[in-house]
Amino acid sequence: SAIKNETPLGVEVKSILDNGELVPDETVVDLVADELSKEKYE
Length: 42
Hints:
Elements: H1 8-18, H2 25-36
């Protein structure tokens, strides 16, 4: 996962979650797009 691998997006999401906030929709879309762009989904 992005958080586990400490990607820039993962670090951003972890910070948001650690503050007890909800992750914005745009950030979730970025996470999904990033995951789906991986070779295993092509």
